[in-house]
Amino acid sequence: MENELLYEELLYFEKLVTDLEIELFAKPYGQDFFPILEWNLRNIFKLRRSMKDKEENEFYFNWLNDLYKRFISIRDIAYANCNIPLGYYLNEQASITHLVYTNNKCSNIKLYSDSGFIFLCQFHQEKTPSLGVRENFGHGYCFGCGSSFHAVQYLMEFENLTYQEAIQLLSKIYLIDIYGNPVQENDPLVLKYRKSLLSGDFKSLLERGYSRTIKRKDTYEVQNSIQKFEHDFATIERIKRHGHIPFDNRRKKYFLRMPEFN
Ligand SMILES: [Zn+2]
């Protein structure tokens, strides 16, 4: 219910900016609520920074500021009160770079943009790598065949799993407890992804991306990337220690059970 109200609010803002012919409200990941929210926040932030003459455009600038504050509060309310789907939460916790890296067949992985890497595509045949994986967006996109995925979708496509199986596997790989998970620790897929996560090669790949990112300009995107890289290093450490993910209490009640599947 709460989600629906917030979604209504987003649609209202979408209409506002469409009237003003601002290209803001692209929806890169379908109709999921939280990715749309994050996408819009980033874009409003970018737009606000890029405005040159703030005095001449005072009205517009103030409007953007209000919009930005409003979105931040929508996000806070949404995170605090809504039942965030487990699949979304796992996408956030997973490292898309790690998942793709596990099945990588190319010896030369290039850096891409401010926060990611380019791999050989795993969904079509190619000789030159064109699968861009951006860690801060938790998202992969192939410029050759158009494949587009986040962590859950990647496992569904690559390992040929259902949605339910993919999130069960993901929670087991990253030691995130969900009640009644039938996937075992010694499942070959769990072992495969754990092995690559703990490999020295993967860690040095992350370090390569991280050391480049922290040299870049201090923008919202770069801050996000840095946080995501640090989160991945922490995940590696946690899995080495074999401790389970510490849920913050506010979120705990929403995540420690399986969602209902239809
Ligand atoms: Zn491809």
Can you characterise this structure?
24% of the residues are buried. With 262 residues, this protein is of the alpha+beta class. α5 crosses α8. It contains eleven helices and five strands; from the N terminus they run αααααβββββαααααα. The chain has two domains: 2-82, no CATH class; 89-255, Alpha-Beta Complex (DNA Primase, Chain A), CATH 3.90.580. A hairpin with a 3-residue loop joins β1 and β2 (116-119). The chain has a five-stranded antiparallel sheet. It starts with a helix and ends in a 7-residue tail after the last helix. Residues 121, 123-124, 131, 142, 144-145, 147 line the site of zinc ion (ZN).
Task: Spell the H/E element sequence.
Answer: HHHHHEEEEEHHHHHH
CATH superfamily of the largest domain: Zinc finger, CHC2-typedomain
CATH first level of the largest domain: Alpha Beta
Number of helices: 11
Evaluate the radius of gyration: 20 Å
Major sheet summary line: 5 strands, antiparallel
Secondary structure tally: strands: 5
Distance between the termini: 19 Å
Poorly predicted spans: 19-31, 247-262
Q: Please state the structural category.
A: alpha+beta
Number of domains: 2
What gross morphology would you assign? globular
Report strand %.
5-15%
Mean pLDDT across all residues, rounded? 76
Give the helix level as a range of percent: 55-70%
Ligand inventory reads: zinc ion
Side by side, the strands of the main sheet go 1-2-3-4-5
CATH architecture identity of the largest domain? Alpha-Beta Complex
CATH fold title of the largest domain: DNA Primase, Chain A
